[in-house]
Amino acid sequence: MTDEELIKKTLKLAERGRGKVSPNPLVGAVVTKNNEIIAEGFHREFGGVHAEVAALDSAREDVSGGTLYVNLEPCSHTGKQPPCVDRIKKSGIKRVVIGTFDPNPLVNGKGFSFLRRGLEVRAGVLEAACQNLNEGFFKHVTTGRPLVTVKIAQTLDGKIARADGSSKWITSEKSRRLVHRMRSQNDAVLVGIGTVLKDSPRLNVRLVRGQDPKRIVLDSTLKIPLNSNFLTKPLVEKTIIATTSEASKEKIRSIKELGADVWTIKKDSKSRVDLSELCKKMGSEGITSVLVEGGSQIFSAFLQENLADKIAIFIAPKIFGEGLSAVHFNGIHSLHASIKLHEFDKRKVGDDVLLTGRVN
């Protein structure tokens, strides 16, 4: 097998830690000897054994003289686990193939340099794929903020709801299944209180296998009813209400007693939750990625304040004519000033089209 094929295998192994290791990265490792795979491992849980050590521990024979493949640069510092580079060198491995460097300032080339002193090391194999796998970790470890993806389900004419407010279901079942997959791949999902009051969504993972994300509700004055499904078991255990000083302290206590968390965030100029401060708070709480699911006001704010990193727009082959537009804001006075996407892609999902791109 080639280096590229084996790094692809580490990526598949790494995915098995999805939803369990954050804010740590997803890492998989493979050991080969005499052109045969003799060990595999992946990072299973936050604080647990790292992928490289897990692979070395599972080897069915002596790894001396073998090659270690790993999608992310091995750590060279002591955290919840000892440095992986020490274990790799002591194991007798003679060659290491790395997918991409770790931008964590505690690593960032140090593991690579350490291993090169005595071992043959190749880095940058399928680098783009390896970086994409851990893009939330990369954003978080370099900025202290989560990767923000705005997810919109709309009609051909840009509407996310009919004039009467109805919106179930605009897109196809295949699209909804993919949205559940996206939820399972993010640490948190975020909506505004308007969406909660109108749609009473669960925002969990039901249509695919995967971990439920945390659920963040923006609610500046705590309009959320105490009998909301967000505040009843089992959903309450992963619910976070982001509010402001305008909220009743008594209601904050009541919500906390029900089992949800409440974050009091600084107000912006419109007395709403300051989204930049919220992103800082999410990062400080170990949230590395968040999927913004609505509604229009929230989509617009994240885009206008330049806080979105990516956008995913599911477009159904329907036309409402009248209804609620996906985004609406002032301030773009020319084509040159419009929000532009790059790394743009499109694909068909059931009857719908999914457009994705990067905003930042």
The CATH topology label of the largest domain is Dihydrofolate Reductase, subunit A
- Total helical elements: 11
Helix content: 25-40%
In total, the number of domains comes to 2
**Structural Rg:** 23 Å
Helix/strand structural class: alpha/beta
So what's the oligomer here? single chain
Query: Which architecture of the largest domain would the CATH scheme give at its second level?
Result: 3-Layer(aba) Sandwich
- Shape label: globular
| SSE arrangement, N to C | HEEHEHEHEHHEEHEHEEHEHEHEEEE
Distance between the termini: 37 Å
User: What's the total number of strands?
Assistant: 16
Mean pLDDT across the residues is 94
Low-confidence stretches: none
Question: Largest sheet at a glance?
Answer: 9 strands, mixed
Physical arrangement of strands within the biggest beta sheet? 11-10-9-8-12-6-13-16-15
CATH class label of the largest domain: Alpha Beta
Strand content: 25-35%
- At the fourth level of CATH, the homologous superfamily of the largest domain is Dihydrofolate Reductase, subunit A
